[in-house]
Task: inverse folding
């Protein structure tokens, strides 16, 4: 068994001088920041893993994609599972996308920004449609 490592992460209240009030948005920023600093895998609490992530770890960064019935989010990247290498370019670009933080939008920075980055730089992200 591999021992787990953990480190305290400070409470995020701002990004690029802008106040973050939504708890979910704070979590979004933290997961991007931690994975880009250390590399690794982030899973939302409602994710059940049935297969190994090893085949996906060869990519610099991996996200899933929304496939639900909501037409406004269908095809939008989903960060419920995030796999990334340390200092992955895509994660750095996504983090920089928070310079235009829109706190009133649930999905703008967490879904639409990474989707837009992917459309402009598809070589920087692997989108896995089966997760």
Result:
């Amino acid at each position: 068994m591999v021992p787990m490592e953990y480190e305290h992460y400070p409470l995020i209240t701002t990004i690029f001088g802008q106040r973050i009030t939504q708890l979910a948005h704070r979590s979004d920023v933290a997961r991007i920041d931690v994975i880009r600093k250390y590399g690794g895998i982030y899973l939302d609490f409602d994710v059940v893993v049935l297969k190994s992530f090893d085949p996906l770890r060869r990519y610099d960064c991996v996200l899933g994609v929304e496939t639900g019935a909501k037409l406004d989010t269908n095809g939008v990247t989903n960060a419920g599972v995030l796999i990334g290498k340390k200092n992955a370019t895509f994660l750095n670009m996504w983090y920089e996308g928070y310079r235009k933080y829109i706190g009133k939008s649930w999905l703008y920075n967490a879904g639409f920004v990474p989707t837009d980055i992917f459309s402009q730089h598809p070589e920087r992200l692997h989108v896995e449609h089966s997760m």
